Automatic annotation (TrEMBL):
The lineage of its organism: Bacteria, Pseudomonadati, Thermodesulfobacteriota, Desulfuromonadia, Desulfuromonadales. It comes from the Bacteria. It holds the Pfam family Zn_Ribbon_YjdM. GO terms for molecular function: hydrolase activity. This is Phosphonoacetate hydrolase. InterPro entries: YjdM, YjdM_C, YjdM_N. Residues 46-112 form the Protein YjdM C-terminal domain. Belongs to the YjdM family. Residues 4-32 form the Protein YjdM N-terminal domain. It comes from Syntrophotalea carbinolica (strain DSM 2380 / NBRC 103641 / GraBd1).
Length: 113
């Protein structure tokens, strides 16, 4: 077993040293030997349009009419959504809207109830 730290991005134990840098062969992440070790478990903070922090299970309200691509449906202003899940990516809210179904929303178009 090597004395190298686990990858700070994916947690892989197969890191190696290359020219003064640690390298992860699984995800390709490189970091300096002198860099402070970051906590990989730190989650991204997701905020709504008014700056309130969102968490899994929160209820939200849509603040703008949102057209659904590939459909004639529209999510209207004031639509309430219960029990959201936060996910990584551009659309950071995963939810189920009554009458429409499963959707991904951007946090900038919602407010916390």
């Amino acid at each position: 077993m090597s004395d190298f730290p686990n990858c700070v991005k994916c947690g892989s134990e197969y890191t190696y040293e290359d020219r003064g840098m640690y390298v992860c062969p699984e995800c390709g992440h490189e970091w300096s030997k002198d860099a402070p070790v970051e906590n990989a478990d730190t989650a991204k903070v997701v905020r709504d349009a008014h700056g309130n922090e969102l968490h899994d299970g929160d209820s939200i309200t849509v603040i703008k009419d949102l057209k659904i691509k590939g459909s004639s449906l529209v999510v209207k202003v004031g639509t309430k959504v219960k029990n959201i899940r936060l996910v990584e990516g551009d659309h950071d809210i995963d939810c189920k809207i009554d009458g429409i179904g499963a959707m991904k929303l951007k946090s900038e178009f919602v407010k916390k109830i």
